[in-house]
Each structure stands twice: as C-alpha cells, then as structure tokens.
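Table S2 (text version). Query chain:
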Amino acid sequence: MEKNIPHGGVQVVLTVSEEGGLDGSKHIQKEHLKADFGYALDSGGSPGQIILKAPGQNSIDVVIHGKTAHAGVAPEEGLNAIVVAGKALAQIKQGRIDEETTANIGIIAGGHATNIVPDRVELKCEARSRDVTKLAAQTEHMKQTFETVAASHGARAEVHIHHAYDPFVLAVDSFAVTLAAKAADSIGLKVALQATGGGSDANFFNNYGVPTAVLGVGMSKVHTTEEYITEQDLYHSGEWVAAIISAAAKKS
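Corresponding structure-token output:
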C-alpha cells in the first residue's frame, strides 16, 4: 500500500497456538475465510521454495499401568511400568520410517521416588505421513506394540489416538502454486517445489476448501535453541508476498 501497488482483496489471517496442534486454524470459523486461495509463511528453505505436499498427523497418548512396591524391601512384588515402556519403545519403529512417514516419542513421565517401583508411566507420541494408508499403518504399529509388550509382562497399556490433521497435496499447475512461482521468478528468487514433513495452518485451510501453499521464509534449525532466520530472508519474504499480491491483481 505504501508503494501504491495495484491489488485486489487481501485477507490476512493471524492464528494462535500453531505449535500447540494448529489450534487456531482448527477452530477458526470457516465462513470467515473469504479468500479464493492462500499462502502460509511457515517453512524452512529460502524464499522461493513452495510446499506442495504436507503430512497428516496422529497424536498417540499412552499410559502403561504396572504395580507399585517398595523398591528396596520387595521389588519382586512390583511391576515397573517404566521398564515395560522401555521394552515397548525398543520395538517401535520411530524416526524416519520412509520419505513420507515419521514417528516420534516426544514425552515420557512417570514414577514418584527412587524407592518406589513405579506403577504408571505416561508417554506422548506422534506419527506423521503424507500417505494416509502409511499414517494408519504406523499408528497401528505403535498402538499394537505398546499393548502387546505390556500384556506380555503382565502390565496394561492404555492407548488413546487423536487425529490431529489431514495431509494435503496441491497440483504443480494449481493457481496458487503457479502464481507464487511466477511472482518469485519476477523478483529473482530461485523457485523450488517441495514436499515437507511439517504441518502448518495450511493443512486446515486446504481442508476448508481454500487452496493454500506454504512458502519458504528461510527458517533454519527449527525447533532447536539455535533457530534463526536471516535479515535478508525476511526482506525477501516480504518482497515475495508483495509480488504475489501484485501478480494476483493482474490475473483478476
């Protein structure tokens, strides 16, 4: 607007709690989304990178129930839930399963004191895949492993699965993708069409019927204490968005 660039209608959506499970986009009132297509500025890779494919995710919450006992007086009377969980984890496929699928054990908590055999341990896990069949298979593998290993040691696994969000795929020749690519090229950015292993608000926006690509903005070392983005990439991202808005106006 400062440069008086011709533009059509532009809707800016600011969501909350993206890292908490895409809660903002999940609970947005869909009727308020008026855009024909959109972009989420939420990916690593240099400006010019366009994400066409992203995974769906299942959250897997597990409670292993064992039996408490005094660890020094009568440990044989107890059933250590943490040990049982460890045996299950040793059998679970995790990390990168294939190019489309990942799994992670993110949180484990249990026990009260070193002199008490712990009778309960809680785990929070996830599975992701850009292929819904693979997502279901990995989720079932994790569930069955926890339940089977627990039962084989006389313990019990309580497994709750929550479907967090669906995957999405945009065609290479879709309007949102070709427009972003043309805009990037017009300002000298190198265009790269990619798939990702990360979820974003675009997962829900696509599910709501608003084709939404994810744009690379230069985020590096994401989810670490060394996460950063360069000043140059911030400027390039802003210039790219302005170029997209300008290109969209010419198409309308």
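Notes on Table S2: The two ends are 18 Å apart (CA to CA). Helices lie at 23-27, 81-89, 132-152, 175-186, 201-207, 231-251.
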